[in-house]
Amino acid sequence: MNTAKKKKIITFENKLLYLALLIGFIPSACLIIALCFLPFSLAAKILLMFFILVIVIYGAFFIRQKVVFQLRTSANLIESMNCGDHSVRARQDHSGGVLNEFNQTFNKLSESLAQQRLLTKEHQILLNKVISQIDVAIIAIDNKSGISLMNPNAEKLFKCRFEEVENWPVSTLGLQNIIAGEHRKVVEFEIEHAKKKVYIYTDEYFENGVKHKLIFITDIQSILRDEEYLVWQKLLRVLSHEINNSLAPIASISETLTRLLKQPITQNYFEQELKADVQDGLSVITERANSLNNFIKRYQELTKLPLPDKKLVNLSSLINTVIALFGDSIITANGPKLMVYADESQVQQVLINLVKNALQAMHGEQDGVLSIVWVKDEKLINIKLTDQGTGISNLDNIFVPFYTTKEQGSGIGLVLSRQIINNHGGDLTLANRTEQQGVEATITLPIN
Q1: What's the pTM?
Q2: d(CA 148, CA 142)
C-alpha cells in the first residue's frame, strides 16, 4: 500500500540559513581549490580550509540568529498589543535603516492604539452612565434570543436583576413577540400580574458581524395618567362653566318666583304683573334648559363619532368642492393630482370647518386671502390652510371640548375635526404664523 509522504516545510529562518551557507560555500570552494596549488604544507592547507569553513558556517548561523531574534522580538511586541498592553515600545537608535523605520512605525501604531483604547474606555464609561440613568428600559437580545444586557430601568420595570436572567430566553420577560420585526407603538402587557401601557421601539446592532436586537421600552402609564388628568381638568372646567351658566339663572329665577307666589294678591293689577313675571321666568328656565340639553347633545356627538368609511378620493376635486361652497371669498388652491384613502364626507366636513374658521378670522380684512396647498412626501400627504386673520390668542385650549372665543360658537368644531383626522391615522395642528399675522392649519394624512 502506497503512503503519501508529507512534504517537508522549510521555515523562513532555515531558508535564510541555507541561502547564507550557499553564498558562503561557493567562494570558499574556489579558495580551497586555489589552496591546493599553493606551495604550503598539507597541515597548513587543511588548517586554512577548516578555518574558512568555520567562518562561513558561523556567519550563516549568526545571520539566522539575528533575524530570528528580531522577528521574535517583533512578534512579542505585537502579541503584547493584541493582549491589550499598549505601553510596550520597540527600541530605537539613530543608526537609521529599515529596521529603525519599522520600530518607529510600530511605536506610532502602539501610541495610536493606546489613545484609541483610552477614548473607547472613556466613551464606554460615559455610555454606561447614560444607560444607567436614562428613563428608558433597554434590553439587548443576542442572535439566539437570549438576554445579553439590561439597564437598571429595565430591571426596575421587570422587577428582576440582570445577573439572574443573563442569557435566559427573552420569553422570560414576555417579549418573545416583540423581537420579530420592527416595532414603534404603544402596547399593553402584563408585568407581575399588573397591566402596563408602554411605548416599545426596536432596533438592531451588529457584534462581530452577527445581528442582535435592541428593545427600548418607555413606561408611559404615569405619563398617560397625567395627560388624562389634565384633559379631565380642562373638560370639567368647561363643563362646570357651561352648566353653571344654565343652573345659576334657573335657581335664581325659581327662588324669585317662589317668593312672588308667597305674597298675598290684593289688587288686580298685581295679579297681572305676577302672571307676566311667572311667564317670563318660566321662559328663561325653558330657554336655559333647552340650552343645557343642546350642550349635552353636542357632547354626545363627540362620543358617537362613526369610524371613517375609507375609499380612494381625488384630493384636488374634494378641495375644489369645498372652495365652491364659499364662492365670494378669496381662496387659492395649489397642489398636485393626488388620490387619498379616506372618508370623503368626514374629510370634507373637516375642511369646511377649517375654511369657515379662517374666513371668520379674516372678517373685516379686505385683502385677506386664504391659501390651501397640499404636497406629498414618501409616507404622508400634508394639507396646509394659511389665512391672514387675527391669529389665535390661546393655542393651549383650542382642542379643549366646548372651549370657544366666538359668541355663537359651540366649541366642538375643532375637536371633532381633530378626532376625524386622528381616526384616519393622521393629525391636525394649528399654529400662528411667524412671518405675518394669521394662522396655519396643517392636516396630515397617510398615503396608504
Answers
A1: 0.43
A2: 6
